[in-house]
Amino acid sequence: MKDCTIILQGKINKECFDLWINNHKESNVVVSIWEDENISNFAIPSNWKIVYNDYPQKRFAINGNLDLQILSTLRGLINTKTEFVIKMRADEYWSNIELIYEKIKKNKDKIVSSSMFFRKFGLYDFHCGDKILAGTTQNLNLMFMTAYNLAKEKVLQTKVPEVHLGLGYLIAKNEIVFDEKFIVLFNNKENGPFDISGAKLNMEKALKRITENFQILLNKNQINLEQANNTINHCKNILTYCYGYNELVEYYKHKVDIDVEYLMKKNFEIIDVNNLKPYIATRNFGDAEGRIWYRDNFDNDSEDCISEFK
Length: 310
Hints:
Layout (H helix, E strand, L loop, with lengths): L3 E6 L4 H10 L4 E7 L14 E5 L12 H13 L5 E6 L8 H9 L4 E4 L17 E5 H17 L7 H12 L7 H12 L5 H22 L6 H30 L5 H8 E4 L9 E4 L6 E4 L16
Parallel strand pairs: 1-2, 1-4, 2-3, 5-7
Antiparallel strand pairs: 4-6, 5-6, 8-9
Helix pairs in contact: 2-4, 4-5, 7-8
């Protein structure tokens, strides 16, 4: 794996970090952590690269730690000099990562993703597993830079952070035309059926506004040409807006659904985490259940995750 770098990003867990140090002294490793981490008690191998990151002054993703993952990963990628990269969390540990490397080498155009939380199709569109993300350094850069732009612009109405990553890669590879139409379709699919009655309401409002504007002109004994011109331009803007809205409605009515399953299979590969034992992985459920740990035999099926494409 001389042409592959391991990126460990985020918060450090002592047990996991010791395992990485003990088992990967000779590996290419970039550790991308936050400014308040203290690693002075660890025997860091001399060939490892340590990157300290300042916390963002303004968070641009409110759901989970998506923005923190993106920023620390991008900083890690900047410091990666190899053709391939495997991105993992610094508070987790995985064995047999050569299996991930082998999958990368077989198809350089795909991103290898963990089965842990690579959700079954139909639950969340474009949801990959971000426990492990691996591929060419160029493709990981494309994925995370696009996800960064999606999250920062806040154009997608989704509460699922991993969707930004999966969708980000598809957009970066030009598999999806990311325009206003797609945004409308995506957000309305997330929120429920598209309300076609909005088109009628828009036209009624437009008719009222235009009628009022022209009625003001006609009620005067003498028409002011400048005022008339301004009124016409104003009405033109109203109609242009209505036309654009109704075009989106018609597009939605006659659209062909994007084949999410096909696109994810075309651009992603899955590594079953149970082939990477022994491992230590974690998940934070928040106040309700707190943090839990996975150490063996993750039940992909009962967790609504995909272990392999069929």
